[in-house]
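Sequence only, no structure available. Ideas?
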Amino acid sequence: MTGRLLHRAFRNYETRVHELNYLFWECTTRCNLHCRHCGSDCGAAPSEKDMPLEDFLKVLDTIPASERPDDFTVVLTGGEPLLRPDLPEAGLAIAKRGFSWGLVTNGWFYTRELQNRLLLSGLGALTISLDGLEDEHDWMRGRKGSFERSVDAIRIAAGCSRINFDVVTCVNRRTIGQLEQIHALLEGLGVPQWRLFTIIPIGRAASDPDMQLTGAETKQLMEFIASKRKAGGKMNVTFSCEGWCGKYDSKVRASRFFCRAGINVASVLIDGTIAACPNIDRNAFAEGNIYKDNFHRVWNEGFSVYRDRSPLRRGICADCPAWKDCLGGGMHNLHGNPPEPLNCLWRKTL
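Reply:
I predicted one. Tokens follow.
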């Protein structure tokens, strides 16, 4: 059996088991930046208030300890989670319930003092964004000084061996030529893992041509990642889980493409919506709401559209020979009514 067939069998098994081990909490949609590629269109004065901690803890309390794998992780995302003044208290309450927890941040507010407080609250995983060299990063983030703040945060986090830490970079047309320089910067800072991704045209990026790589630029990105992985080194370089990369797929990741949204991954969004990854179409793929549904029951009895994607084979995927490996890409690639794939990473890598 070939590697691709073995992977399909593994993916089918994981889909049948449907074990939840990763839960996003969109704890705020407030943000101190105005990023060009934001899928949630967050801002300084969002329409939704921060979800009360008590409401999210009730969600965790629906998950029996007997059905919780050892590697179950809660990830706080936003917006910018560090805008919540109760973040250390929230982390501690999550940890006391037996869950590991992590954080996704733009790094602006991340200091050594705050890191120490978060470590005491059980912080185990951290992702910080860096989207280019200084001018490009500040352009992407919409605020001068963002690059400097992010680099300071990365330096602090990279020096802490207690955190499972990585840096994530959105590669766009203005940064595709900077990859070697960014690599040298991050490796010099002691970053253990660098995760690169490209943008699905949603949110603020939907009509921004600078965000979308051409086919040639996409192959350039794949070649860069593949070469760094082959060379080894102190820093692991990897591509995100956004889609199947064809001939590059096994060269740019440790394992083949598998979108685990709704398979192992769920989310609780700011208004209580139960879904999978936060960037997934909130209208098309909502599974319920914590204010009227039992979260654990929804996980066990719902998410059928994530486990059987065959009804989603439409649009550019309708007659695609790569469907069995790709399944339309990451679920955040499917938008509209009815939802259709927006991008085809495979075609860009041919």
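The chain is about 35% helix and 15% strand.
Hope that gets you unstuck.
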